[in-house]
Amino acid sequence: MRDDEAAGARGVIGALVQSAVDGDEQATHDLLAHVHPLALRFCRSRLSRLPGDARHFADDLAQEVCVAVLMALPRYKDTGRPFEAFVFAIASHKVADLQRAAMRHPGSTAVPSDEMPERPDTSLGPEERALLSDDAEWARRLLANLPENQRELLVLRVAVGLTAEETGQMLGMSPGAVRVAQHRALSRLRALAGQ
Q1: Are 49 and 107 in contact (CB under 8 A)?
Q2: Sign of CA pseudo-dihedral 136, 166, 95, 47
Q3: What is the secondary structure of 65-127 as a DSSP string?
């Protein structure tokens, strides 16, 4: 998507947001149809470290994000930032709440079931989880050494899986600037990992 196409998409979303804020039911429906996949990708990327079936939590949390966006629409004020940044802020708070709850009450995030599974459990065992946890902690320490803007850019590009165009819309950058900033951030991470 070129810069002019990205600007056009922002304009369409902006008009949709304004119509939804004004109470247009179809615009609200269309806006939530745009919000849900963004929220789902964000939640899936952030919840992948939780024990249990993170996909179940991500689906539920994406729905909660949509409800929160719907509830916040009447009070929404356009501050010049992309609407998607507003959505990601809500999603980030919802994910943090769930992660805090999981830390306070380990094991309570398991999904109860009174049915016997038909197939053997192929999920990761304790050793594999420990190794992945070590890798995640190492990556977290490396990312902590990057400036906030580079960290957020890498999360959106790598963890959430947004395109350079989508990431540029979120961060107010051109797709080319996103690619250059991503290259610099990854180079910095490689240098830190080699120390």
Answers
A1: no
A2: negative
A3: HHHHHHHHGGG----SS-HHHHHHHHHHHHHHHHHHHHHHSTTTTS----S--SS---S--HH
* pLDDT tens digit sequence for 1-25: 444 544 555 667 888 889 998 888 9
Tokens (6 digits) for 5:
């196409």
SS3 call for 45: helix
Residue 156 to residue 163: CA distance in whole angstroms:
8
Q: How far is CA 25 from the centre of its chain?
A: 26
**CA angle 74–77–83, rounded 5-degree value:** 95
**Three-class DSSP category at 57:** helix
Q: What b/e sequence results for 64-73 when a residue is b if at least 16 CB atoms lie within 10 Å of its CB, and e otherwise?
A: bbbebbeeeb
List the structure tokens of 99.
């992660």
Contact 44, 58 (CB under 8 A): yes
Length of the chain: 195
Rounded CA gap, 173 and 98, in Å? 31
pLDDT digits (tens, 9 = 90+) for 104-114: 655 544 444 45
- Cα gap 140→134, rounded to integer Å: 10
